[in-house]
Amino acid sequence: MSEIWTQRYDRPDYLFGMEPTEFLVTAADRVPATDALCVADGEGRHSAYLAQRGFDVTAFDPAPTALQKARRLDVAKGVTVARHQASLDDWDWMQSYGAVVAMFIQFQGPEARLPTFERLRQATRPSGHVILQGFAPRQVDYGTGGPSDRENMYTTDFLEQQFSGWTLHHLRDHDAPVASGPGHDGVAALVELIAQKPG
Question: DSSP character for 4?
Fold first, then answer.
C-alpha cells in the first residue's frame, strides 16, 4: 500500500489540498491544545493546521513523496511538525499523546481495522481525545473519493463499539460537499468522531 500512495502523491499539486477539513477546524475548537499524533497524515494539511492552532504535533506517513510535500507545507504555513516516515505497522504505538488524530486513514484490508483501532486507543493518554473523520459505506456509490471497499469505511455503530466506555463528545454521520483537492471533490458521506478516554 505504501508504494501505491507514494505514486499517488508524486504530483506537483496537493492531491487533497492544503487546507484542513471543516470538521477538524471545529474539533480543534473543542479539544484543548496538547501534544498530538496525526496518523497516516499524507501531505500534511491536518497536522500543519493543528500546529498553527498551538498543538505540539507529531505526524507519520509511509509515503516519502507525501512527507516531502508536508515539509514544504510546514514552511509555507510557518509551523514546526515532527514528521516521520512510517506505516501503521512500523509506528511505535507505546508512545502516548493528549490527542490522536486519524483523518481518512486507509486500512490494508478490512481485517486491519480492529488492530488499528486498538492502537489508536492505546496511544491516547487518559483524559485524551481521539479525533477521527472518514467515509460511510455509501460513499462507494458517490464516487467522490475514498476506498472502493465498503468494509474499510465507518459506521456510527462500529465507532460506538470501538470507543465503548469513552465519552463521545461528537459522533455524526451525514452528507456534505467536500472540496479537498482532486482527491476528494463533491458530495461525500462523512462520519465524524470526537471521543475522550476515561481519566
Answer: H
Question: How many Å apart are CA 58 and CA 80, to the nearest integer?
Answer: 9
Reported in sequence order, the residue ranges of the chain that DSSP labels E, i.e. its strands, are 35-38, 56-61, 82-85, 97-103, 124-135, 167-180, 184-196
Residue with cell 472540496: 179
pLDDT tens digits along 54-83? 999 999 999 999 999 999 999 999 999 999
Q: Which is the CATH superfamily of the domain at 2-196?
A: Vaccinia Virus protein VP39 (3.40.50.150)
Closest residue by Cα to residue 9 from 188, 185, 149, 183: 183
Tell me the per-residue pLDDT of 125-173, one tens digit each, with 9 for 90 and over: 999 999 999 999 999 999 898 888 888 899 999 999 999 999 999 999 9
Q: Are 67 and 6 in contact (CB under 8 A)?
A: no
Three cell numbers written together for 43:
501531505
Return d(Cα 191, Cα 7) in angstroms, integer. 27
CB atoms within 10 A of CB 33: 14
Q: Name the residue ranges covered by the structural domains of the chain.
A: 2-196
Cα separation of 21 and 179, whole Å? 9
Largest CA distance in the chain: 44
